[in-house]
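Moderator note: this is an archived Q&A kept for reference. The question asked for a predicted structure of one protein chain; the sequence and the answer are reproduced below.
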Amino acid sequence: MIKLFSIPPTINVQGLCNIIYNTQDAMFDLLQRNSFITSTSQDLSLFAGQQVFYDDALVIKKPVQINYSVVQPTSNIAKVKALAGQNIYDLVLSTYGTLDLIDKFIADNSISDINMKFTGQIYSFDTTLVQRQVRNQYNAANNIVYSTGFIPAGILLGDFNNDFSNDFFN
């Protein structure tokens, strides 16, 4: 794409070429597009402020400077607080998105009894291992909490007795 550049004061053709193209390899293009430039050694001071045409496709892009400073590693460990009625399976599903990592969750949190009460306890998990990030983000945004073991207070459950009938406490 052809662009315009304003000639700065006290510059020659080689300097202008370096400013525009970041190289002198495109000097022929600069001379060809701008008829008032007659030689590669011409002083352009008299033309300060005048516009020159150049081909942007010939510009050599300068590489981005690399910052070699030491970056402190960020933690990939997050915390989750168990809510009422959540069991180990609910916690693993709500953190990792899959039960495949239940052993890791148990080991990382030193859980010795998977049938214990989890409510109110805080557990950690590795965010780099989350399997279902889209589902977990949706659940978090919509306040959805896995709680497969929760029975709301006041709900009576039917029972099956020895005669295999559902007599609902009768």
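Archived answer notes: The first strand starts at residue 2 and ends at 6.
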